[in-house]
Write a structure and sequence with these properties.
This protein is α/β, with parallel strands linked by helices. Among the domains are: 90 residues, Arc Repressor Mutant, subunit A (Orthogonal Bundle); 106 residues, D-Maltodextrin-Binding Protein, domain 2. 41% of the residues lie in helices and 24% in strands. It has ten helices and 13 strands. The strands form three sheets. Strands 3, 4, 5, 6, 7, 10, 11, 12 and 13 form a nine-stranded mixed beta sheet that branches. Strands 1-2 form a two-stranded antiparallel ribbon. Helix 1 crosses helix 2, helix 1 crosses helix 3 and helix 1 crosses helix 4.
Length: 308
């Protein structure tokens, strides 16, 4: 919305009146605003005339708001504060990103994909310092003091804002030595007859959601032959032939390329895990947060469909 001259005059009148109340008089208000005392008085008189109400009690010693003036002051101060905040936001958004960026990152993704690119980000933004906390649980961003979090998989319903960084396919994988000893399942239904390797940090750690050839989502429940809270440890166990793991591609792709693990049921459609940056709600995103998310989106856009 465009501000016409009368709108700008109205804001000036409002600011003059509020400053008189804040300072307790016209002389100090004039000094605060860098205007003459007569100019301040003229703005306040014009405001009272336009509203048709007396906003100030004036005596030779003291100036104080009337009852209706107090009501108007409260609302006027809010409007002026909002205007000042709007100016500050624009200024901050144009400033170079700086300060401490504290983020929570899922351990496996942080180690495998985020740590190797942090040097590029820090080189681009030397005024930002990073504190990356690797956790396999969902942190409470605001109460625990984080600026953002990187989360893998389905997002919980929340008031947080989210931006998709990339995605990763998920596969059932096992070592050739496992198949030699225990055979290879050919259908989803056969998985429960095998040794399964599970994440313990997930609320449904013993349940795998797998897409069947028909496109239907199937749930596989089974007691874990080995259960740990770290994806790399699960991959290591699979490589050793201890069982079947269900892992994202950014963990297993190197091992698969080297022939250390194989796709358990190759005909199954690939399940996809979304990887998102989540950050506190609000109209204003801090430059350090915005610059880091923009960096990740651009960085992983060059990596192909599986983030690597």
């Amino acid at each position: 919305m465009l501000l016409h001259g009368c709108d700008m005059d109205r804001l000036t009148e409002m600011e003059a009146f509020a400053t008189v109340v804040d300072q307790g008089g016209f002389t100090d208000a004039a000094r605060k605003m860098g205007m003459s005392k007569s100019a301040i008085s003229k703005h306040v008189s014009s405001l009272e005339a336009r509203l048709g109400a007396r906003l100030l009690n004036r005596t030779t010693r003291r100036v104080s708001p009337t009852e209706i003036g107090l009501v108007y002051y409260d609302r006027a101060r809010r409007v002026l504060n909002d205007a000042g905040e709007a100016d500050s936001i624009v200024t901050a958004m144009q400033a170079a990103p700086s300060g401490l960026l504290r983020m929570s990152v899922v351990t496996d993704f942080g180690v495998a994909l985020l740590s190797p690119v942090l040097d590029e980000f820090l080189a681009q933004y030397p005024e930002i310092s990073v504190n990356m906390v690797l956790k396999n649980r969902y942190v409470e961003l605001i109460s625990e003091g984080f600026d953002l979090a990187i989360r893998v998989g389905e997002l919980e319903d929340s008031s947080l804002r989210a931006r998709r960084i990339c995605e990763s396919t998920q596969r059932l994988i096992a070592a050739p030595s496992y198949f030699e000893q225990h055979g290879r399942p050919t259908r989803i239904d056969e998985l429960t007859e095998h040794r399964l390797l599970h994440y313990s940090n997930q609320s449904s750690a013993n349940v795998w959601k797998i897409i069947a050839p028909s496109g239907e989502e199937r749930q596989v429940r089974g007691t874990g032959w080995l259960t740990v809270n770290d994806g790399q440890s699960l991959l290591n166990a699979a490589i050793k032939g201890l069982g079947i793991a269900y892992l994202p591609s950014y963990l297993y792709h190197k091992a698969m390329a080297q022939g250390l693990v194989e796709d358990v049921i190759p005909d199954l459609p690939r399940s996809t895990l979304g990887i998102h940056a989540v950050y506190p709600p609000g109209r204003y995103t801090q430059p350090k947060v915005r610059s880091f998310i923009d960096f990740l989106v651009a960085k992983f856009a060059d990596k192909g469909p599986d983030c690597w």
